[in-house]
Amino acid sequence: MRNRLRTCAGTTAAFAVAFTAFGANPAMAAPVVEDRPPLSEQISPEAVAPSGSVPRATDPEAETPEPPDVADVAELERDAYVAPFREARTVEYFAVAPEKLPREVVDAVRDIDGVENVLTVDAARVEVDGEPTSLLGVNPSSFRNHAPKPSAESDEIWQGVAEGRIALSKDVGTERELDVGGEVTLAGGNGEVPLEVWTHATSGIAGIDALVSRELARELGMPEGNALVVSAPDADLWDLHEELEEALGEDASIQLVADAPEPLVDGDAVPSTVIEQVIANAETQLGVPYVWGGTTPNVGFDCSGLLQWAFREAGVSIPRVTHDQWNAGQRVEWDDLQRGDLLFWRSDPTAPDYISHVAIYLGDGQMLEAPRTGLDVRVTSVRTANYAGAVRVNV
After folding, report:
1. So what's the pLDDT on residue 238?
2. Which end of the chain has fewer beta carbons closer than 10 Å to its terminal beta carbon, N or C?
3. Is 241 a catalytic residue?
4. Residue ranges making up the domain that contains 328
């Protein structure tokens, strides 16, 4: 069965982040779609610790990072109840549909063997200061248990969200210079809403860059209850995916959030001749500025956008989002690195287990990357701080 999954490699699966029109005068009337690979390209083996002096990004004995900063807590009214943090829950899948999911569908997901918890949330693509941004409307009391630990344990973060502030991911907040304590304007189907940026705290779900309360999501005109956060830590990920597809129907898109604990797909590495073309493509963009969300050659790229473009130009399809690229091939030990392998880092202090950066290995300790705002696409020495591992892309 696992070998058979290779037959769907190379096909395109769409992950829809926004689905329905936002009222009569929508800010984002048409669905916004991000390409994601089929499940067979999303799932890969567990990362193997690099040997030598390269550290693991996640050290079980390391202290939990400090919670993300928040704006002025003296401004909190404390008039919205937020339940205390109860227990850390994993997120294996995020599923989203064009419209509200019927109760019987949600119940069917809850009844799947191995599913321990299901959260209903609101998902849409809105404009934050004029930039399209993937947003979730959540119940702070329940969602916090599924959030990365530094945020989950912070009462102040979830109190602020409950009282009508917005939590931005660290990438969006820092790369777009949307400072904690500053104000942004959200544009939805019901018009524009000014909001205070309460914190920079990554949700842990790839591609989701902002959180608000479900009450505020309704005020914005977002679809209600059209997405699910699924926790099933002991489930077989492929079997779970099939059962989710059956329960949710063909209109729903299903995103793998977890790292697969074992290889589910066999495949051959991209040939070296193609890898050389990939690297040549990337090298044509040396000196091009880093742009958050950028996918345009000679204009601007972010880290994963650059590599998706370089592979696509060589005839190889890889996912758009960094976390999905981490789940797109065979993990490679440090001592076995080859030219063309993708290198990954976990460097977001608000989500220590989250894959937040990617580069392509050139050999001899060198890599090519689109680093961050203020820096251009460049060749530099491989950094070992917060290194997570490497992936060899398969076809």
Report:
1. 87
2. N
3. no
4. 272-393
